[in-house]
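Weekly sync, protein design subgroup
Attendees: M.S., D.O., the rotation student, P.L. (late)

Item 1: inverse folding check
M.S. brought a backbone from last month's batch and wanted to see whether the design step gives back something sensible before we order anything. D.O. pointed out we never logged the input encoding, so this time it goes straight into the notes. Structure tokens as presented (293 positions):
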């Protein structure tokens, strides 16, 4: 009898509560899938064409699945709010989707590399994974450059997107954002792979390496007299229009012009090119495939 009492107490105190907790989070609910596109963001109206293109591709690929947006930059969100446009942070977007009953969410990072912004995104997602009555399954799609295969696909797309008027002896200079995060190495890896196909394509960064000084030295060493300046960012936003193509003395255009290199500017973000967007969509497809249910 004593053993039976002990067994009953064990069931009541330890086993049954665990079943209750599991049932509270995982009880049967109708599957409701959603997509959350996450970008750094931009407050420039001209840049919205990039985001619109990505959204249209996502909706075209995954018909009948709602598409939501989040910007990781609080500065951009505040600027837009003052203009009357309200964009959610990742946490706010997920909280709203949770309240709306979404059970399965595929989040697609629209970042270029696995840097700090992407790491912060992953940390935020982890916080939502075990919430009671929350989203059952969340999967994060990889940024544009996440593997050697991605680099090879991007290389092919970039070469295809170069203006047809460009001659082989003329340079193509891509401006990436750059970061102090170790993932900045992807830019150098991209340039290495590009130059195996075309030795006059260069990749520099605004906030990482190689810097514009490094690029200028490479161009002058090869006695290049003309360069096409093209942003390697999802949108042709502030960095592209000011740091790259601006008239200030320290812009990339001014720096190269003073070095005797004629500059031709192309203000078009990577997300305006379908062959680049398709790589993000492939990552989103992989994320959707990993959603259970």
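Designed sequence read out in the meeting:
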């Amino acid at each position: 009898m004593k053993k039976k009492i002990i067994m009953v107490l064990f069931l009541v105190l330890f086993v049954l509560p665990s079943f209750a907790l599991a049932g509270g989070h995982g009880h049967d609910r109708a599957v409701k899938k959603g997509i959350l596109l996450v970008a750094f963001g931009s407050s420039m109206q001209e840049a919205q064409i990039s985001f619109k293109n990505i959204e249209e591709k996502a909706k075209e690929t995954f018909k009948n699945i709602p598409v939501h947006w989040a910007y990781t930059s609080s500065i951009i969100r505040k600027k837009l709010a003052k203009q009357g446009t309200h964009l959610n942070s990742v946490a706010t977007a997920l909280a709203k989707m949770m309240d709306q009953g979404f059970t399965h969410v595929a989040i697609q990072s629209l970042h270029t590399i696995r840097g700090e912004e992407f790491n912060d995104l992953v940390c935020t997602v982890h916080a939502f994974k075990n919430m009671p009555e929350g989203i059952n399954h969340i999967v994060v799609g990889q940024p544009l450059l996440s593997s050697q295969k991605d680099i090879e696909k991007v290389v092919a797309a970039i070469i295809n997107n170069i203006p047809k008027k460009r001659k082989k002896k003329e340079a193509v200079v891509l401006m990436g954002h750059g970061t102090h995060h170790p993932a900045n190495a992807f830019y150098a890896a991209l340039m290495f792979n590009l130059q195996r196909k075309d030795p006059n394509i260069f990749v520099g960064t605004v906030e990482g390496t190689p810097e514009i000084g490094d690029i200028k030295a490479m161009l002058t060493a090869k006695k290049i007299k003309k360069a096409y300046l093209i942003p390697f960012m999802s949108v042709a936003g502030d960095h592209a229009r000011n740091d790259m193509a601006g008239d200030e003395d320290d812009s990339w255009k001014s720096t190269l012009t003073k070095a005797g290199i004629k500059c031709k500017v192309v203000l078009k973000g990577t997300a305006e090119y379908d062959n680049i967007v398709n790589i993000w969509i492939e990552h989103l497809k992989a994320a959707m495939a990993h959603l259970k249910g």
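Discussion: Strands lie at 33-39, 67-71, 104-109, 137-141, 171-176, 201-205, 226-231, 262-265. The chain has a mean pLDDT of 89.
Action: P.L. to compare against the previous round before Friday.
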